[in-house]
Batch of 2 targets.
Target 1
Amino acid sequence: MKNAALIGNPNTGKTSLFNKLTSSYEYVGNWSGVTVEKKVGELRDNSGLLTDLPGIYSLRPLSKDEAVAAHYLMEESPSLLINIVDASQLERNLQLTLQLVDYGKPVVIGLNMTDVAKARGIEVYSDVLADELGVPVIPLIARTGAGSRELLEKVRELEPPSDGMAAGHLFYGAAIEEAVDRISRELGAASFPKDTRASLRWIALQILENNPAVMDALPHGLNDSLSLICASCSSRLEAEGVSQSIPEYMKHIRTERINRICRKAMDRSHQKPHSLTERIDSVVTHPLFGLPLFAAFMFLMFQITFDWVGNPLSDLLDSFISGPLNNWISDGLSAIHASAFTSALILDGIAGGVGGVLVFVPQIFLLFLMISFIEDSGYMARITLLTDKWMEKIGLSGKSIIPFIIGFGCNVPAIMAARSIEQPKERTLTMLLVPLMSCSARLPVYALFAGIFFESHQALIVLSLYLLGIVSAMLAAKLFSSVLFNGSSSLFVIELPPYRMPQMAALFRNTWEKGKGFLRKAGTIIMGGSVVIWLLTFCGPSGINVDMNDSFLAWIGGLVAPLLSPIGFGTWQAGASLITGFMAKEVVVSTMNIIYHAPGDLLGQQIAHAFTPLQGLSFMVFVLLYTPCLATVGVIRKESASWKWTLFSVGYCLILAYLVSFIFYQGARLLGFS
Amino acid sequence: MNQERIALDQLRPGNSARIFQMDLVAPLLKSRLSDLGVEEGTAIKIKSRIPFGGPITLEAAGQLIGIRQSDAARIEVFLS
């Protein structure tokens, strides 16, 4: 059974290759930091497992997601490494390759983007490269899958190197090699590592490079003797006239070796510039048009999601669910002579609760499709450029915009995407603010209320809510960064990948990967929640089948209702919807579907009786800003590893939601609106 | 050789230069630039400047990268 690991630089098509090599679906993106957790898939020929690791430039991590790869190599024991290398960026990619060949496990190189390299006039001779490095090299085009079968075959027949060392391993010079031997002896004497993971040579090299992810895994008793060895190595280098630090010197040795390899293995005499990318960039990062174009793209995204495509599709789905589907269920129930209780539970509880949320599938999938397009095309990296100056002013970096945009789809992956932010302060702050980005689960609430009260201005109202979320996040960022964090320096540097036309298949797969979480929620938490909510409306302190106003749900909602009345909706129905909405924000709509259900009467008419337009708006504002959903709170806890920040995020959102709704509602009333 | 040494942020789009020294660059940023193949001696070409004092984009080691103006000011280059 093979246990392979896939390692490579960011933006080299690693995740696409993972999809081609394994029979499971994965998430593809085109900027640094898409793979925020390692993912495991079954190899297509069933010969073993493949682990996809986050993209790294070097084994020495600078950000949280980069540390995942070094930790993996220290703590697990892959039987071989697949190193994906971008043929159009050979020099930079080989830095990592030279660090991997010392690991002590077989390495196979997938030389990707050979088509891109060829189009740019760069010729890479894979056989020469293989000879120079002493490891097999398979040319690939991961996007189309060309070469992935050959790679799988090579993986199957690969044998571990007999002496535990690849033929192409690099000689770092007498000073470093002596230190490697001494460190290896120390490690051997301490019998570390206990099993056959990494080679002693590789661990020794990582210690000399001062790799924190490797140092942390060492037995504590070794620290003193190891730092002595490093110090004597460093003075020996100095005596030899080297002015660099050990890691710098080691990188320099690798660079020299890479230059020698590339002179033989690569011909770039016919190299052409990135002409298409430059032409697109001259427009989208234009001094005058750049920002307006970004705003126009965002507006277009909303128009397609709502007015142009999403809402018409949603209306069709709604008329199907509330019409024919409801009739079929009710016919089916009477055909099997279901009891009145069962019929009510299924029709009013499950069909009402789940159906009310399912009608928003078109909008949610469209939004995910467009976010996937922005990711895969390479435009996301340009958005970070355009916004960096503004983000810096409020204590963030341009990279924070990536989690924010993903957050419009779903806050959970957005908080994980914050891992690629190098600066810890900016990462924590970004995680705290992501919940203010209006995720697609909040859409059903807006669509329901805006559809009832502001039918002709629906898109405008929804867009304003998104903007309100963004503005709140900006103000909160400014406040938190100046009050909660002391002035640590900010960091921004981003690689701008060449533009690529996203492939339809990858786009749809990506959209499905993100959107299926919503469908799964509909089948689990929303369905379960709907049953519980319906039962709470069916039972009350005085028994079962009570009038809804005497039910348990009314009692629970009534507890918070007085608190909510200053912000415009002090009814038990609103209170109960908001409390149950903590499970998932769509549940607000499910609950309303159940609460306001009356035979022959549409939900819209019921809500129009219960809320004035102003109260409806205030309710939408509150839903936008209040406590992140259960899943988001869970992921904040996991990612921040701090209950303090987790509770803080719940607390500040609640206070912010209440304040904004209060000011909005009371302010509008003073101005004479109702 | 008569080469002019100036700060990277003084360059205009289209200018080519070679990095002379980056001792004043913050260590974390310097490591990240080094990962991308941008070091002392690397040839660079300025591509564009984002308005309102935003980042500068440059081509270096065969790729496009963006850095802040304030950081670019700490990188000294030979104009070529």
Target 2
Amino acid sequence: MSTPNSPSMLQALSPSDSGELEQRRVLFAEIDASCRLPVLLLFVSGLTWLLIGTVLAILASWKMHNPGFLADWAWLTFGRVRPAHLNAMVYGFASESAIGISLWLMCRLCRVPLLYQWIIMLAAVFWNLGVLIGVAGILAGDSTGIEWLEIPSYASPILFFSYALIGVWGIITFRFRRQPHLYVSQWYLFAALFWFPWLYSAANIMLVLAPVRGTVQAAVNWWFAHNVLGLWFTPIGLAAIYYFIPKVIGRPIHSYYLSMLGFWSLALFYNWNGMHHLVGGPMPAWLITVSIVASVMMTIPVVTVAINHHLTMAGHFRKMKYSPTLRFMVFGGMSYTVASLTGVLMALRSVSEVTHFTHNTIGHAHVGMYAFFTMVVFGSVYYIVPRLTRREWPSAGLISLHFWAAALGMFLYITALSVGGVFEGLAMDNPDIPFLDVVKGTLPYLRIRTGAAFLLAIGHTAFLINFVWILARLWRPYRQATPMIIAATQPESGPIKP
Amino acid sequence: MIILWLIFIGSLVLLPGTALLALRWAVRRGEFHNLQKAALSIFDEEEPVGLVTDHFPGMEIPDANRRAPRDP
Amino acid sequence: MNYGPLLFLGVFLTLASSWCGLVLIPQLQLWKSGGLEAVKLEKTGEFYPPMRSGLAEHGREVYRANGCIYCHSQQVRPKGFGGDFLRNWGQRRSVGRDYLRDKPVMLGTMRTGPDLTNISLRQPSASWHMLHLYNPQITSPGSIMPPFRFLFETRKIRRMRSPDALDLKPPFAPPPGYEVVPKPEAQLLVDYLLSLRAVTPLPETE
């Protein structure tokens, strides 16, 4: 990482004559053009994983209330389909989309075109290969048995090294920024790009390659698993919200001071949260207490961010009707508040006593990963792809269908599992209720969950159709686009001099 | 046990110590001055403040302070 | 805040703090306090936790491969915390030493099914486990555990019935002339389940 500092490397990395570039501002259209292939590749493969993950999710959800369904094949048993779903979604869909969004945002905020796109494309291909081998390995029975880290040891190094290429590239882009000001989204992106490889390599080494002894494994496991959400997806999701909300409504963020407070308090507290997954477990008590305290402290960044976003949006909520991106972003931002505040509650010992080990936790995980992060991904993709392809989304109806199916599906999903989980936990802590009756009591909620999964699948299908459609338009000659793209980009031929 | 305490106290002093020194240095350097200027850094002549940059395909935002499309 | 190295320093220090606090310090604490070593029990002179048999150790791999952890925990919470003691899932809480020989440690985070820390005490019969794995509805009607039929083989009876064949009654019985026998994986898994118990009193559980 020291070489890029030298001027010769700077020149070598410049896409064109650097002297000319330094004199004028790089136009958004140039940045979009440089990002086109790698970011589209990441989005398309992410979308593919989203669909694979959705199928696995429906299978797993269906098996919960119909245990005999497809039970004759080892690779389709619930205990393999469920982690396959998680890993396809987390490392396939969510991470690839996150990387795509990060690269595009990073280039845009740094005002530099993406350099040497083929390196990112190569990394994306290998990342996909790693996830593919990993998910296939899980279905074949090679899971490591460690939650959120199930990808077998023969696939995780592929993931790590392809990430290394991407991460280094993101940070090189950051290093060569032409924008003197660091925007709040850049802090989050920079932090996430740096945190993830640390987490991933440390967890893989301490749990899979050279496992530590005893329950320290559980500590490392939940330090990692909670931080994948907290220090990888959350910062990227927040970076996107911090950029897209002001950008879409054309109004600067309400308070830059609050955004700074939010960032540093998140950085300080979130990474201490993980042990609240082990409340009541065979761990030193102080360890769990520290995590509970840190979880409660998370109120600070969450409320700060919520206030900031709300005040930025104040008076502009009507625009949600007209902007798909804004709609998904606001939904995502509000879910972040809900996810984090319920997370604070669930970390408390008295609440955890009931909700730990129940479906409530699964519901909570989906508030964070879907209602917050995935919705933010959708919103970002709806903004970025027209700029990359220089084509409009073909169907407004499909975007609306996608939003409402996702929003309603999530509402059903979260309500069913959160409520059902609390009842399940209360019944489980009451020894007068036979265990089988506790199980039977969860069935209605599990069935509603399957219904919600189908709704989400409808949304994903609408998204897929629109995506394939816009890509198909790439083969049609470029026509005058509608004002949305014109406003943000310049015509391809001959950029206008400032 | 001595090693444990050394590492424990060492990290207890070293990490926040570095952080505090860095904070002091940053304040003196003016890193926290004029914050609102950075908030405006995502807007420029290409996409100025007040420009709504996203809407459904084929839909117009009624109150958008929209710039007329440029001629290619 | 526009200075990159400052940002880097902050981002580095924050994660370093929790890495030290949540990963390094517990490791050192347990290592220094002897929590990562097997102890010799005064009464019996044996070491705790005991070594698992090779068969049970292989059964653990079957447990891991088929994701039993996604529905079954292996930890007993302290007395008075949740229903663990009242449901007779354990006579003492689980402690770190119980898991010394486990790679990976499978504490679990879900109880869609009951806790398995002491399953060998609650269900000591191998044939019960075989029937339960083949089809949970035989032993626990209404259960939502999936049947693990792929761990069993339905085959034609040659000359005489295998001694391992499951004792299945209608409607679960195979067609006449056929028998259901466990594959080696099923045997190993049952060996593992029958090795699960953590009741030995330890100094830290007193």
